[in-house]
Structure formats: C-alpha cells, structure tokens
C-alpha cells in the first residue's frame, strides 16, 4: 500500500479546483452568464425594468442607422435582421459594417469602440457602473481574436459576438 500524499505536496491550484468542483462553482461554458444576479437594483426598480424602459432609445438609433445603410447599399427595405444570421451575404456583412459605424460601435480602423459600448450601456441602464463594466469587458472579449482585414467581415464577426452576448443576457435588440 502506497503512503498517501501529504497535503503540503499538493499544488494549491489543485486543491482550489477540487473544492470548486465539489461545490459546483465551476460550470461549463455552455451555461449562460446571468447578468441579473450580478447587477444591483437601481433604487426600488429592478435593473431589467430600467433596461426594458430605456432600450427603445437605443433600438431607435439602430433602426435609423439600419434604414440609412439599407438605402446606401441599395438593399431591399424589408432586409432581414442580421443579429442571428450565421452565413450572411457579403452585402449583408457590409450592411452590418455600415450600421456599426453609423452608431459608432465600430471605428474607422475597424475596431470595436469600447467607449461607445460603455456610453450606450450607461444610457440603457441609467449609469449602472456594474453593467457598464460588464459590457465593456464583453466588448473587449469580442474584440480579441478578430484579425480579418476585410471591414465587412470584421463587422460580421463583431455582430455575431455582440448578438451572442445580448442573447445570453436576454437583451432584445434587433439589427
């Protein structure tokens, strides 16, 4: 029979991971991140009530930009929303680029404008600092790993990432 390993010889990280696994704190990435549990309430009103009330302002901004871009690119007026479209045409990818640039979420260098993400989040959440920090972090995560030189492709990749983040957090914004 082999002697048991002394606790001091077990790396600390192994102990931490074992404890987390036993307490079910570590979950697979397929589980959605529940933003509502993290965000404090604003006064007596739940954060989701604030978002539901203020989100139409951002939706109006997106819709106006989208209509201008549809005209500019000579796409049909009833162009399908592209938030969940995984394989859009090149022209549809360019529509996303146009919209993201019009609402200043994508800059002239084809990078995600984290400052504008924070500004829009502040507008929707009435300056909820936690929501702003979380959305900024999500935007930075979307920016990492996108290396295409084609601005329409970059916009499509941003769109896919942003749409996943919005869906995971039950934010209904159509573009």
TrEMBL record:
User: What cellular-component terms does GO give this entry?
Assistant: extracellular region; extracellular space
Q: Which GO terms describe its biological process?
A: sensory perception of chemical stimulus; sensory perception of smell
Key word Metal-binding present in the record?
no
- Which GO terms of the molecular function aspect are on file? odorant binding
Any idea which UniProt keywords this protein has? Disulfide bond, Secreted, Signal
Q: Which family does it belong to?
A: Belongs to the PBP/GOBP family.
Identification of the protein by name: IP02009p
Source species: Drosophila melanogaster (Fruit fly)
